[in-house]
Structure formats: structure tokens, C-alpha cells
Design brief:
The chain is an alpha/beta fold. Bound molecules: adenosine-5'-diphosphate (ADP) and zinc ion (ZN).
């Protein structure tokens, strides 16, 4: 990679393009020359493609055939640290550079010239005749001093039609001119005063800010019970970054959480930050991308892909709810945003704050080992105390078939209803029932394309495959034996639980919160706000309610099946259950009223359930860490998954077996291969999936060995191979 200043016209340069090639291509610098990192348009065959000037040309191509860069785009060049970040991230995840570049250029119209739009502001002229409508337009403009508005904005503000505004333009009372569409974000004012912090919070802020002032890379694990003020504390770290003239990024695991945070930023800094996630329009994405590069956006709140935005001087990355599994991208480029945040920060000398009430074992272990600083908030803000947690031993409860709320839990809910408080029933399963069974032939309805059962979604009146998303109407007759009216749902999902709750508590207002029941992120956000404000007596929720939403009136959380996550062979099953249960329980009693959490379990003596109830977190982590150390698995060893897939199951297994036999590059580093075995979900969208698991000691060059191992593989036909470093879910 070249850091040297400038390439003169005609100089040989290497360009990385977004095309799936495994190397940079040589071009000649265009008229006027270009800087390293410049975004360029280059000819490739008959097409024009986007690329970045990566350095000096390789010179291994016939010089007479080398073509010239078409043009340099009018955006800030990619910084050296970003090029280094992409390179390192590609090496870590064994991803081709072209795919990394695509991640870093996910904004539409980057090659378009800066686009303009018409805006309107107050002029000197006077209309011949003053009407009410005209007066309103001029009044609105006067009220906002020198500001200019689009035609639509202005007409809406004044409550007039567009023709009224245009009429005023004719007299010069309103003037029209062009202004760039991508405008700077309003500045965030860090000098405004924040909330008065508690002693513990103040101490945490001082420690964080001191480490920020070094302008060196470092990671802090900010651990604190739900409601202890982690967000307040990291907002002050954002303030410090802004004060230092640097930019900040706050990652959140779910879009629905960003709403509350935007409001808090507005209150603290007097303006809203930029947003980056799937709910943001394409034009807004383009604006965010461009403004960050030129330093006209100070703070981004967003999803994991925001890590690949072209910040000019990124000084702080906050990963909120850092343990959340949605930080692991499971599609395309397989990366864990938490790890990539640390890598990115190391490249640009930024501080990372990993915030969580229940950190991942990885982060806990890094703090234990002294690699991360650790700051702890131990008490909840104000009067809020942690809920009282107890198990309901389901072996002692009298349950009617097809019901899931025990008499004990029912009484607890009734007590809340009488007092006018909120109760939550939690089940981590979407849909109505996980299984639809034919009582005549005993067959379960499965997906035609996947090795998965179809889940009934009664609300949508369809059966749905949670693997591939395929849906079909709920059939009248059994697809296997043709018997009519014999299909029956088995087991509970959130919709069925809602039905049971409606029957048990007919007077209560019940709100069901599941990500698939809301049409859009905005509808979901509005739904959550309404419920938090008292719009429901009973909240029925899946995993998403566990994530950081505030429900001040909530005093009871009932977990329908606390054992659900304990089954299965997943390395992280215990950790996940522990985190999820503690998070859910943390929803109760966030304001003045104390909360209670009741966990329905058939095995309350299980060590994980006991640890959850006793609240002995350090004890749980130490035990879990010991087990993993003994087994040599992450974070005390390294793992990688290789998933082979294709339409022909025999061919996929043959390839898997060939890989397993030729494991010399892995044995060289002391790694072992397990498999091939059918992946836990052995078929998705008609493709058979086979998995090999690689287990290696910590500290070896795993990626390099993996690269050598899979290099000879020739993928024929529709066969695919993907590498997953540090697999999270064992699919
Ligand atoms: P966490 O991120 O740890 O869950 P929050 O920062 O969201 O905690 O704080 C929980 C609630 O308490 C929020 O409503 C927050 O505004 C409030 N809060 C926390 N600390 C303070 C403080 N020092 N002054 C006023 N309100 C606070
Ligand atoms: Zn399917």
C-alpha cells in the first residue's frame, strides 16, 4: 500500500474495484493526476466500475494494454487507515478485498455529481396584492430568519399550495435558488450541560474521558446493571470525543432501540445525529456517507455496517449491548461487529466502549486478562432496584394441556392488574406454534426447501419457514395423508401465548411485541413508546423486548420457558440463556416500584438457572470460563466453521471428506478438524449443507492455515464454500 503523496497523470496505479476479482488492477492516472485512496471510475471490459486507488501499479501487465482512469469522483479519498482496516478485516475473515470494498461503498449514487435542489427564501420584492395565503408564506419565512426551504416544506409550513409560493416568486417577494442536496448535519453542542450524574457515574465518566485524552487505541468494558446509567455515561464519552474535534459512532443491535437514543442525543447536544441502518432512505444514506468523509457529521448511530463508513477522524466507537448475537453478520461477509469495532479503533487510535449488563464471555475474559479496562456501575439510577428473581418449579404446577401460564404466574399477574401495574410474559419464539402436526398420520409439516418445520403464524394466517422465509396458507388437509381437519398446533409461540393470556385475563389490555407483527421499524417504535407510556396492562414479548427498552410501569416479568435455551449442543447455550434471562428480568422495576421476575422451569436446580437466580454473575462467568478453558474452546482456543453447500448432497459430502483428509496445513499448526457432518440445519433453500469445524490452539496463525487448506478446492457447479471465523451460532 502506497502512502506517498500523489500520482501524476499517466503514472501506473493499482486500483481495487468492487468486482469479484482477487487482485488490484493496473491503470494509468487520469488527467490532473490523483491521490492514493481516491475514488475513481475505471473501464473494465465494456463497463465502467467503481474503484479506489490502492497504491502504485503492480506493473505485471502488458503496459501497452493498460487503460486510463475515466475520472476521479468528487468525494473525499479513502483514508489510509480505512484501507488498512479493510485489508486487516479481509485477512481476519478470509473475505476477498472486493467484497470488503463493497461493504465500504454501500451508498447509492457515489459516482453522481453532487446533486442540487431548489430552495426558497425571503426576497426584497412586494406582491401587488396581499392575500391571507401569501401572508402566511412570508410570515413563515420571516419567523425562520434567513433559512431556506424546499417548495414542499414551505408550502406545508404555511398551509398553502405550491402555486401560492410560486406566485410570490414572480414578484421577488420569495427568491428561488439552487443548493446542494447533501447538506451538513446540524452541529452537536457538547457545551450544553448534561444530567447531574451520581458519584458512581461521575467516576466512570472521568475514567473514560481520561483514557480518551490519550488519543490512543484502547477498549473499555462498561458493565452495569440495566438502568444504571450506561447510556448516560457513554453520552459523556461522546461529548468528550466531540470536544476533541473527533467523530463518534454508537452501534446498537436493533433499529427499534435507536429511537429513544436519538431523543437523548437531542436533549444532551441540542440536535440529532446521523442514522445508518436499513430503515434509512437511500438519499439519506448517501448524505451520511458523504458528510462523514468531509467531517460534516459528528455522530452516527447505527447498525453494524456503520463500521465501514468513511469517518474522517473517528475517536470513539460505542458498542451498546455488546453481547448481542445480532452483531454477528450471518450472511455474505461473516464478521462480528464487536471484533471489527476493536480492529477499526486500533487503526484510527480511537476508544472503544463495550456496554452491557451481561457481557459476552469473550469480553469478560479480555477484561480479566487486562486487555480491556473495566468500569462497573453497580447500582440502578434513582430508587430502582433489581427485581427479585425466583423460579416456578413446573413439576409442581397443575397445568391443563395446551396451556403454558402456571397458576402461580397467573396469580402474580392478577396482583399486578389489580394494582394498575404492568406485567410482561416472555417467550422466545415467534409465531403461533412451532410445530403443526397431523393427528391422523403423525407427520409434521415441513418446509419443501429446508430441513426445518413450518411455523404457524396465525396472525398472518400462514405457515412460515424461519430458515428461508417461504410461506404458504395454512392448509385444510394434511399434505402427507390428505386427512381433513386433523392438523393441530403443538407447543407455544408468542401468538398462542397471547391467546391464552386473553382468555386468562379478559379485562386486561394485552400488547404483543414481536418483530414480525409490525410492518415497519417506525410502527414498532411507535408501538413500544405507546406501551411504555401505559398503553397496555400485559406485554407479551419475544427476544426483542429484552433489548434495552424502558418500560417504567413494568413490575413483573414472567418467563414462560426458562429452559428453552439450555437444550442443544451450542457452545454458548448457557451463556445465552444467562444473558437473556438477566436482560429480561432487568425490564422489571426500572422506576420507583420494585420488580419481580418469575422463571418457569422444569429444572430449577440446573447450574445456569441457579446462577441466574442468585445473581452471582462473577461466579457464573468463572465457572463457564473454566469449562471452556478445559475444552480448549473460545475464548481459550480458536474455532472456525467451514460450510459447504450445494444441490447434490453426495458431491457436497465428497468435497467435505476430501478436505478432512487433506488437513495437513491444519495439523501443522496443531489444529483439529471435525466432520464433515450435516450442518445443524442440513438444508436451506434446497441446498444441502455440510459443516466442518476447526479447533485450534490460541495464538496460532489460524487464518493463514485455513487459507492454505482451502486454496486447492475447486468449486464445481452450484457448490459454495464459506468460512466463518469464531462461529457464533452453530448453524
Ligand atoms: P442503562 O443504559 O444502563 O440501561 P440508562 O442510561 O438508560 O441506563 O439510565 C436508565 C434511566 O435512568 C434512564 O431513563 C436515564 O435517563 C435515567 N438516568 C440515569 N442516570 C441518570 C442521572 N444521573 N440523572 C437523571 N437520570 C438518570
Ligand atoms: Zn424453508
Amino acid at each position: 500500500m502506497d502512502t506517498a503523496g500523489f500520482f501524476d497523470q499517466g503514472a501506473l496505479i493499482a486500483v481495487l474495484t468492487t468486482q469479484p476479482l482477487d487482485r488490484t488492477l493496473d491503470y494509468k492516472a487520469p488527467e490532473g493526476g490523483c491521490f492514493p485512496g481516491a475514488y475513481v471510475e475505471v473501464p473494465l471490459g465494456p463497463r465502467k466500475v467503481l474503484g479506489v486507488v490502492w497504491g502504485a501499479g503492480r506493473g505485471d501487465f502488458d503496459l501497452t494494454k493498460i487503460r486510463t482512469v475515466i475520472r476521479v469522483l468528487d468525494v473525499a479519498p479513502m483514508r489510509l487507515e480505512m484501507r488498512e482496516f479493510l485489508t486487516r478485516a479481509a485477512d481476519y475473515t478470509l473475505t476477498p478485498m472486493s467484497a470488503m470494498l463493497r461493504l465500504a461503498t454501500r451508498a447509492p449514487g457515489l459516482s453522481d455529481p453532487p446533486s442540487m435542489r431548489k430552495v426558497f427564501r425571503l426576497g426584497q420584492g412586494e406582491p401587488e396584492r396581499m392575500t391571507d395565503a401569501r401572508r402566511r408564506v412570508l410570515g413563515a419565512l420571516q419567523e425562520y430568519g434567513g433559512l431556506a426551504f424546499t417548495l414542499k416544506e414551505l408550502a406545508e409550513m404555511a398551509g398553502v399550495t405550491a402555486s401560492v409560493v410560486k406566485g410570490l416568486v414572480k414578484y421577488g417577494a420569495v427568491v428561488e435558488h439552487d443548493s446542494p442536496r447533501d447538506t451538513a448535519f446540524p452541529p452537536l453542542d457538547w457545551t450544553r450541560s448534561g444530567k447531574a450524574l451520581t458519584d458512581e457515574q461521575t467516576e466512570a465518566v472521568h475514567q473514560l474521558q481520561a483514557s480518551q485524552q490519550s488519543r490512543k487505541y484502547g477498549t473499555t468494558l462498561l458493565k452495569g446493571v440495566t438502568g444504571s446509567g450506561k447510556t448516560e455515561v457513554y453520552l459523556e464519552a461522546v461529548a468528550e470525543a466531540l470536544k476533541m474535534g473527533r467523530q463518534a459512532l454508537v452501534l446498537m443491535p436493533e433499529i427499534a432501540l435507536t429511537g429513544e437514543f436519538l431523543t437523548r442525543v437531542q436533549v444532551r447536544f441540542g440536535a440529532q445525529p446521523a442514522e445508518w441502518h436499513s430503515g434509512v432512505t437511500l438519499t439519506e444514506r448517501r448524505r451520511v456517507w458523504r458528510m462523514l468523509g468531509q467531517g460534516d457529521a459528528q455522530l452516527v448511530v447505527g447498525a453494524r455496517s456503520a463500521l465501514f463508513l468513511p469517518f474522517r477522524d473517528l475517536g470513539l466507537i460505542v458498542v451498546d449491548e455488546e453481547h448481542d448475537t445480532s452483531y454477528k453478520q450471518e450472511d455474505g461477509v461473516l464478521y462480528n461487529a464487536r471484533d471489527m469495532a476493536v480492529l477499526r479503533a486500533a487503526m484510527c487510535s480511537a476508544r472503544v466502549v463495550l456496554a452491557s449488563a451481561t457481557p459476552s464471555l469473550e469480553s469478560w475474559a479480555n477484561a480479566e486478562a487486562g486487555k480491556y479496562e473495566r468500569i462497573e456501575l453497580t447500582s440502578r439510577f434513582g430508587a430502582a432496584v433489581l427485581p427479585d428473581m425466583r423460579a416456578i418449579d413446573m413439576r409442581d404446577e397443575k397445568m391443563k394441556a395446551g396451556t403454558w401460564v402456571s397458576p402461580t404466574l397467573r396469580k402474580a399477574v392478577e396482583a399486578r392488574l389489580e394494582r394498575g401495574e404492568q406485567a410482561m410474559l416472555f417467550i422466545n419464539r415467534r409465531g403461533y406454534a412451532p410445530v403443526t402436526l397431523c393427528r391422523a398420520c403423525g407427520q409434521q409439516i415441513g418446509c419443501d426447501h429446508c430441513d426445518a418445520r413450518l411455523v404457524e403464524h396465525r396472525f398472518l394466517k400462514r405457515l412460515m419457514c424461519h430458515q428461508c422465509g417461504e410461506t404458504r396458507p395454512i392448509p385444510e388437509t394434511c399434505p402427507s395423508c390428505g386427512a381433513e381437519g386433523r392438523l393441530a398446533p403443538v407447543g407455544p409461540g408468542i401468538e398462542r401465548l397471547a391467546e391464552e393470556a386473553a382468555a386468562l385475563f379478559p379485562e386486561a389490555r394485552i400488547a404483543t411485541l414481536s418483530s414480525d407483527l409490525f410492518g415497519s421499524a417506525r410502527a414498532l417504535k411507535a408501538g413500544i413508546e405507546k406501551i411504555a407510556g401505559g398503553g397496555a396492562d400485559i406485554i407479551i414479548g419475544t427476544q426483542m423486548v429484552a433489548k434495552g427498552h424502558n418500560f417504567p410501569l413494568l413490575t413483573l416479568v414472567g418467563v414462560i420457558d426458562a429452559d428453552l435455551g439450555l437444550q442443544g449442543s451450542d457452545l454458548r447455550a448457557a451463556e445465552r440463556t444467562f444473558q437473556l434471562m438477566r436482560q429480561v428480568a432487568g425490564r422489571a422495576g426500572r422506576a420507583e416500584k420494585p420488580g419481580e421476575a418469575l422463571l418457569q422451569s422444569f429444572q430449577p436446580e440446573h447450574s445456569v438457572i441457579r446462577a441466574i437466580l442468585s445473581g452471582d454473575e462473577e461466579g457464573f462467568w468463572r465457572a463457564e470460563a473454566e469449562g471452556r478453558r478445559a475444552a480448549g474452546v473460545p475464548p481459550y482456543g480458536r474455532m472456525a466453521g467451514i460450510i459447504l453447500s450445494g444441490g447434490d448432497v453426495g458431491a457436497v459430502f465428497d468435497l467435505g471428506n476430501a478436505l478432512a483428509r487433506n488437513d495437513f496445513p491444519l495439523r501443522q499448526i496443531g489444529a483439529e478438524v471435525y466432520g464433515p457432518a450435516p450442518a445443524p440445519i442440513a438444508r436451506i433453500r434446497g441446498r444441502h449443507r455440510v459443516r466442518l469445524l476447526v479447533k485450534a490452539p490460541k495464538g496460532v496463525a489460524l487464518q493463514a492455515a485455513l487459507a492454505r487448506w482451502i486454496k486447492p478446492v475447486k468449486l464445481k457447479g452450484d457448490m459454495r464454500l464459506s468460512v466463518d471465523i469464531d462461529p457464533q451460532s452453530f448453524y
